[in-house]
Amino acid sequence: MNQDRRDRLRDAAVAVLAQEGGRGLTHRAVDAAAAVPTGTAKNYFPTRDALLRAAAERCAEQYRALAQTPSGAGPEPAGAAQLAALLAGLLRNAAGPGRTRVLAYLELQAEAARRPWLAALLDPVAAADFAAHAHLLRAAGLPAGPARARALTLALHGAVPHLLTGAPATLAAAGLDDLDRFARELLAAVCEEETR
Prior knowledge:
single chain; 10 helices; 0% strand
């Protein structure tokens, strides 16, 4: 099979998931999004589960490519201010250039709640964030125990759907109307010395 066309179809499946949601992911919709003859997607991915797998694999590839350069190909963060800037940049990417990938990934997570095989396929992507954030905390010279890495990761994951929705009152209530401030305050809260 033609690898270029296969990748084009996988990209189209990601785009359809992002634009139409899980219910909109059909072979015809993927064919239309990829601008290929009707039936092409079915030839490459015979079932809907195969389409979901193709989209999940493509999202995972895109995530790994982004994770290879979390600081935009620059040096690792050398302090809290640089790490806050990096985290704010990742959130901007999720709401901007990476929006299609992130929306598709959220749709895949919803599908994974009913498909254990899909949950297993997505698991390494989400799990990798915890280790990556612990690494970034350490690189920035900040406390980086497992609880802090979990708190940071879960806060960032929780922020993403609100950013994608873009509801102004919710963004303001969550502090997401100013991503630089949000990232600084989040780091301060996560890295604050424990009080006992």
